[in-house]
Task: structure prediction
Amino acid sequence: MDDAAVARRSIGLLDLTDLAADADAAGAAALCDRAATAAVAAVCVWPAFVEQCATRLAGTGVLVATVVNFPAGTDPADRVAAVTASALAAGADEIDVVLPYPAWLGGDTEAAVDVLTVVRQEAVGRTMKVIIESGALPGPSSIDRAALLAIECGADFVKTSTGKTPISATPEAAELILEAISVSGRPVGFKASGGIRTVGDARTYLELADAIMGDGWATPATFRFGASSLLDALESALAGAPPPDPDRP
Result:
């Protein structure tokens, strides 16, 4: 695929994201307007901005995603359930929940399952994306097991990362997650998130999905990019313009 072809495929797969610590209502409004103009899959914002975004995006076809148990993965299950319920009532279409990976890595599988279970119960009929924080897991086996646990707990998507740790999405982790989805035999999607900034990055993940899941599998229902600056690069590729500096703030 040339850059323009990658861009055409990728824009509709993008969860345009603002999870900065200083995110505000004005930024959320601008994010929504840009998302609607570009016709991305969704915006992903803090729970405080869900109602605003749902109202602003009504009728555009752009979904509203939010995050819970984010980013550390250490909130108790009852708090996660309450935040999830509130976000859904405010208009969220999708919930991106962090697997309680610190507890899980410490051997407390029950705590991890409890959090994913309460989100799944609250989000009946809505999309649940489980963030396994692959860059914080100690190796391939743990990434595979975390992905399979997420799938067993009802994930609609398995997502690589919060974007808040030193290592975010990597092709190696993506391959392991996609293979776990493939062997599960379940209709589960994949979301690559964190550090995806260039057309080349997007191409890498799309080619992995094509190779493992088959040509045509990657649609907004099964594949997402979580990013804030990737849209700049994709739009530049479509316009035939030089790519933006991927290291700019």
